[in-house]
Structures are given as C-alpha cells and as structure tokens.
Design a protein that fits this description.
single chain; alpha/beta; Rossmann fold; 2 domains; 9-stranded mixed β-sheet; binds benzoic acid
C-alpha cells in the first residue's frame, strides 16, 4: 500500500469510529434523555499518621470524619466524598513530599491533616501557596494560625498554647510554687509547656527544672530519678498517644504518683485510659473536651462513634468529626461547588460548629475559640470538674488576617 493510500484508509477508520461514536451518542441522547453527567466527587486527602506513636490518633480522626460524611449519606453539599489516605508517619522530613503528592498528583480538593506540629508547618507552607483548602484536625503548631495563617487554612482542634495555659493558674491557685516541666522536645511540647509556664509564673509560680526527651523517644527512667530527687510541688508534662501511655505507667511504676502530683494537657490521658489502667487514676489535666460532657451532641456522637469504630470516642475523634462538619458547612454554602472557594471560606470562617465538645466559633485566624475544661481521671473517664478557662482564644501572634 502506498503512503497516500495508507493515510486515506486510516482517516476512513478514524471517520467511521467517530461517526459510529456520534451515532451511538445521538441514539443514547434521543432514547435516554434522562442520562445526565454526574458531578465529579469531592476528593478529600488525609495526611495523617497510620503508623508510629500517633497511629491511633490518625485512625480516630479518619474514622470520625467518615462517620459524619456517612451520617449524610456519603455526600456533603450534595457532592459524593471520596478519600485518599497518605501515612504522614508523623515525620516532618517527609511532609513536603507527602503534601505535594496529595496536591499535585492526587489532585485533592481538600487536605485534612496532620497530627504532628512539625508536619503541619511543612504542609501549610505548601497549601498556602497552592491555595488548597486545608483543615487541620489536630496539629497545634502556633504558626499555622499565627505567622503562616492563610484564608484557605482552618483548624478544628487547638493551638498548642491553648489547653495548657489554664493549668498554670489552676496550680498556682492551689498554692503550688515550684514545678518541673517535661516534654518531647518539638514544637507541640515546647509550645504546650510555654502556655503553662506563662500562666503559672504570672500567678507567682516558678519553674525549677525544664526537662525534655527527643520525639518520639520513651526512655524516661533517668528523668524520673531526677524528678524524685528535686521533689517539686508539681510536674507538668506534654505527651500524647503511645508515648503518653508509657510515661504515665513509668511514672506510677517509679512510685512518683504518690509523692509528686502529675499534671498535663489532656492529651496525657485522652484515648489512652484503657492502656494506662490504674496508673492514670486521679490524674488531672486541662483540655477542650471531656468524655462525660452531658451535651446532647456529645451523647449522640459517642454512641454513633462507638457503633461505627468499635471503640470509645476521644478528643481526636471529636476534632475529626468537626473537620467534616466544617467542610459540610462550606460545601453547603457553595451548593457543592468546591471551586467556589470564596463562598466556602466565608461560610467556614463565620460558622458556629455544634461540636461534641460544646459549640465553638473560629477566630479571625481560623483557630477555635473554645472552653478549656479541668478533668480528672475516674475509672475509664476523663471526668469534667469544671471550666478552667471560658472561650479561650489563641493570641494568633503574627497572623496578618487577625
Ligand atoms: C502536635 O504535634 O501538635 C500534637 C500531637 C499530638 C497531640 C497534640 C498535639
């Protein structure tokens, strides 16, 4: 066959294929006018830890987020939700690549994550540039709603400063004068300790020793020996997840729980009580949630979560559930048009979220303004003793939107 004959045979085949396709399409359109194009799904990318010391936190957030979507028939604002999950491993060094993967490769509409403050800082540097809608359901790094705040970045959890700050006054009011602090040395721990110290020293307390251990190490023995020799009035710590379980057990095993009172931000005893057992009994912490809050929303949520996940809800589940609530509010305001970002951002920023923790609003920097509860471990519950600080807002230092 000559070149020109080959070309004309090829173009005939192309024509026939196109013509047949057109005829089929015309027939379909004529005989089935009710077949309409389905709107594409809204893609939610989870950037959360599914391995390591924070694995249970990531699972709780994911499960509760999906629970809220399922309660709405799998659709928010009329759009079906689909998920992409990336294991952040709580590793800041991998966070930029992981975020770029979700934004550029997976082309998600919304990122929900992370848990770890170091991962959050790297993630937000990417999403504030790309403009991807971002909902942080845990990581408390101050800069996320501080110097790096952005219209498209929201948080449904807390700033690290928030849950710890009220405990400073609680302990000073009890006449405690000398405290030792102890944490994993990274942004979450350092900012949490900073909040406690600010309020404790403002009310007459002093810090006699500032102890730390690298994240996510759990070798506490030498630190516990040091605490025993100092004998302060109180020890205030930040630990969460698997590390919190180990720390509370080690503290009790060293006999310190009977001689040196231990306090912390509520992550120390949230989602951990079953594993901590007797070692956690009587521990007091401050947090924006308490298991036993008698609120219709909390009771309904706990029952639904237990049924869906097969385990009791904790603060991480609450924050994941509220991340989905916030996305629903945005999508409903935009009639499901996830590209209508201005509408979504406006409605999300001014939302009042009916959370299991109690209703809360967002500050101009998009961080929750919320009550911080004083809780005490009684049996398998972080029992609410009262409100340690009403409607506490993070200072949002450096945020140009605030
Ligand atoms: C954080 O890294 O921001 C964090 C992790 C676990 C619990 C609380 C805060």
């Amino acid at each position: 066959m000559t070149d020109s004959k080959m070309k004309s045979a090829q173009s005939r085949r192309t024509f026939l294929k196109t013509a047949t396709g057109a005829a089929t399409l015309a027939a379909t359109t004529l005989h089935a006018p009710y077949i309409m194009a389905q709107p594409s799904k809204v893609r939610v990318g989870f950037l959360l830890p599914y391995t390591g010391t924070y694995a249970k936190l990531g699972q709780a957030i994911t499960g509760a987020f999906k629970l809220h979507v399922d309660e709405h028939g799998g659709r928010l604002g009329g759009r079906t939700i689909e998920y992409v999950q990336v294991d952040s491993e709580a590793k800041p060094a991998k966070a930029t690549d992981n975020t770029n993967r979700l934004v550029n490769l997976e082309k998600v509409d919304v990122i929900v994550g992370p848990v770890h403050s170091g991962v959050a800082v790297a993630m937000v540097r990417v999403t504030r540039e790309s403009g991807t809608l971002t909902i942080d359901p845990n990581a408390g790094a101050g800069v996320v709603t501080g110097a790096l705040c952005a219209p498209n970045v929201f948080r449904t959890s807390f700033s690290n400063w928030q849950p710890s700050y009220p405990m400073g006054k609680v302990l000073a009011d009890r006449g405690m004068k000398k405290a030792v602090t102890l944490t994993w040395k990274y942004a979450a721990g350092q900012e949490a300790i900073g909040g406690f110290v600010q309020n404790f020293t403002a009310h007459g307390g002093s810090i006699v020793k500032d102890l730390w251990v690298p994240f996510p190490k759990v070798e506490f023995q030498s630190l516990l020996t040091e605490i025993a020799s100092i004998k302060p009035d109180a020890v205030f710590v930040f630990f969460a997840g698997g590390g919190a379980v180990k720390f509370v057990k080690d503290y009790a095993a060293a006999g310190l729980h009977n001689s040196v009172p231990l306090f912390g931000s509520g992550f120390l005893t949230d989602g951990t009580l079953k594993a901590q057992g007797d070692a956690a009994q009587g521990l007091e912490t401050t947090l924006h949630y308490g298991d036993g809050l008698i609120l219709p929303k909390n009771l309904a949520f706990r029952e639904a979560y237990l049924k869906a996940a097969g385990r009791e809800a904790d603060v991480y589940a609450v924050q994941g559930y509220d991340a989905a609530q916030l996305l629903r509010i945005g999508l409903e305001a935009a009639n499901g048009d996830v590209k209508a970002k201005k509408r979504m951002i406006e409605s999300m920023g001014s939302a009042e979220i009916d959370s299991p923790r109690g209703k809360f609003t967002l500050s101009k920097a998009h961080n929750p303004v919320q009550d911080i509860y004083l809780r005490k471990v009684v049996g398998m519950e972080n029992k609410v003793q009262g409100v340690a600080h009403k409607a506490l807002a993070d200072p949002a230092t450096g945020c140009k939107m605030a």
